[in-house]
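Tutorial, part two.
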Amino acid sequence: MKWLQRVIQAWQKARELPYLGRGSFAFTLLLLILAIALGWHRTHPDDEVGDAIQQAQQAQISVPKGILVLSSVLPYLNLWVSLGVPLLLFVIWRRWGDLRRLLLPVSIASASVAVWAVASELVEYIAHAHMTEMGEPPAPVAFAFKLIFIALALGSVPFALRYYRKTSILERYTLRTFLHPLVFCFVSFCSLWIIMDLLDNLKDFQQAKSSLGEVLGFYLGLLPYIYVTVMPVALLLAVLYALTRMSRANEIISMLGVGLSLAQVLRPIFLTTAFICLLSLAANYYWAPRAEGNRKAVVRAMSERAADSIMASAIMFRDEQTRRTWYVATFPFSLRSGRERMHGVQIREENADGTPSRTILASSAGWTPRGGWRFYDGSEMIYQNGSVAMIRPFPARKDGQTILEVPGIEETPWSIVSYALRADFMSVPEIVSYLHAHPKAADEKLAPFRTHFWHRFALPWQALALVLVAAPLGVAYSRRGSVGGIAASVFIFFIFMFVNNLFLNLGKGGHLPSWLTVWMPHLLFGALGLVLFHYRSQNRDLPRFQFKLSKLKPRVARPRNRSGDASLPGASTT
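Running the prediction step on this input gives:
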């Protein structure tokens, strides 16, 4: 083990070398300038930009100017992220513990990753601004909010570090006391969630012969959903543990004794909770529902050894206006590259009197915004007077493929698959596209989508409502009362989950306005938390609810008076 000790010693010496971080950063910056001078973007173009330009050329449309601009900018951002960000992480590790010197590299790393992520999303949106890959109407406002949430999630780290640096010693102590159990609870619950899910899907992974990297990538993609699901419980337990520990040690009383109010003592906890809710809002806007919705489909595709990930299967759709009935066996997640197709496609067209006019049977089908529908490897049946008059196989091409092109069909892949999707697993941009694509649908059909639209914004803030209730119950000015506060907080958590699901189902059923149903539990329990906090901050006992079953007061049984019994009639005296 001497070689390991030598490696560790050499690493420690390299870490302590002066100007190593600044010199490495300057060298990386010089490489970036040299790449710009040599025209790096011409020899190493971005893959997404190249696919966007190729799709525009195939569709015979002009390449958007935004794509041309990003084609010369994004390769340098890729180079900077691949070289500069790992170096900045090394600099952050060297300066760990010195908050003043740590703020600059953290800010540069966060800003770099945020700009790179926003630029990558812009390439995808600009390439399909005229019409998205499945034909759903574009939602520019929803996409703009998506970019805002990306910048918020990636660029908020320096602001959190700056707040920690500016806080006082007492606030920093409260924050550390709260963050330690929070990290422990979050990691523990995430591990339990992954282990339970792995036990359910282990057989599918073994049948698909998935590698360890594929399994890890699968669960890394689920992290946004796990974060949104686990964080409210982790916050509740962390608040109860931290405040109970500080109450038993009389630390809260000591802080109040130096002139701080209860709001100032708990301010770090409330601000940290609000910051975590903002990150949950960013995750729940797009990535968390997509991760949960794709989970079963990806596992199914892996177990079936399908080349494409399956979004939905066994779709039956009928358009009353065009009188076409569609059946699709499997529907992929993407139709962008042209290689992904729908499999097992059947179309039945009818006349005005309801008799069949044409049936198309194809092993697979594809769709493009400009070219329309293409059906592969199948046949077309023509009807006359309700009976089959002709069966024609698809025309053969020089490359040996049999393809039937039908550009006149009005239905798009989105109009077909959208009726098979559930609002529970759709992101905000997808819900907005669905509402725009089906404006004349019945209210009972649109009510779940409208409710989940508002639910995407309301769900992350349930953690703040729970903390507002748990914080007053976790604070105790004596050694007694902490256990009762913890039990009450856990009981209120289950009541909150029940009320939240109740109002959510009322909104999905169309019984109440969708925007009101998702915010009502937060308003009720948030108001309850503010009332409890007012009582606790005024050093008053929390209100207790007692149910009197009877107005009769209990009487204490007393011993019988023997001396008084002698005066009774018939009593004998000696």
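The mean pLDDT is 81. In part three we will examine how such features are distributed along the chain.
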